[in-house]
């Protein structure tokens, strides 16, 4: 649901890499985006569900071009995938491969993974974070990883992650956008970003 704030407010874009429509990945990422928007005033939340674009990815299609443009213009980007064969989905990889090098420069990104087993929860850090950094994004916080058994307590899990990481996300977005909306004790938050690196 779009948030109404000042026109200078940053844009939050969510990319869902699950090939199944209406997936738990979509539910998780949307919930996380709304909770982050409670902490960081954003102009809008745009959801890009790649399951609806899958058959058009390799065609000259305006929907894919619009999704790529939205991702490249995001100030804050949530990129979510189920863990698939120990990494992220081929659908998400195919979409990210369409972005030119440096396309995410200026964006603060949050890698999100959902896995069946705890030992797969590191996929966000090991595989998704590096590709986002390679595309130019800043990834100041740890990846958000959820295992399936935590889904019934999603509100607790999401709240805990957001409370821990909102300050570094706010500082990173402020550094990229220069907006005063995020200037709440930026000096302290910049210290937190440096510590997180």
From TrEMBL:
Keywords: Flavoprotein, FMN, Oxidoreductase. Residues 11-146 form the NADPH-dependent FMN reductase-like domain. Gene3D superfamilies: 3.40.50.360. The keyword Flavoprotein applies. It comes from Parafrankia soli. GO terms for molecular function: oxidoreductase activity. The keyword Flavoprotein applies. InterPro entries: Flavoprotein-like_sf, FMN_Rdtase-like_dom, NAD(P)H-dep_FMN_reductase. This is FMN reductase. Pfam families: FMN_red.
């Amino acid at each position: 649901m779009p948030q109404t704030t000042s026109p200078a407010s940053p844009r939050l874009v969510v990319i869902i890499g699950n090939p199944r429509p209406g997936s738990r990945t979509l539910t998780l990422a949307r919930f996380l985006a709304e909770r982050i928007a409670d902490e960081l005033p954003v102009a809008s939340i745009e959801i890009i569900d790649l399951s609806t674009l899958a058959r058009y990815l390799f065609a000259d299609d305006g929907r894919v071009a619009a999704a790529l443009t939205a991702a490249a213009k995001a100030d804050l980007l949530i990129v979510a995938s189920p863990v698939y064969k120990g990494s992220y989905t081929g659908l998400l990889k195919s979409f990210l491969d369409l972005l030119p090098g440096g396309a995410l420069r200026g964006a603060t990104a949050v890698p999100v993974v959902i896995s069946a087993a705890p030992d797969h929860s590191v996929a966000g850090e090991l595989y998704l974070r590096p590709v986002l950094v390679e595309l130019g994004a800043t990834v100041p916080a740890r990846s958000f990883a959820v295992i399936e058994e935590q889904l019934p307590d999603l509100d607790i899990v999401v709240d805990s992650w957001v409370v821990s990481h909102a300050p570094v996300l706010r500082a990173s977005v402020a550094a990229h956008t220069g907006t005063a909306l995020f200037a709440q004790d930026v000096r302290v938050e910049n210290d937190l970003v440096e510590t997180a690196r």
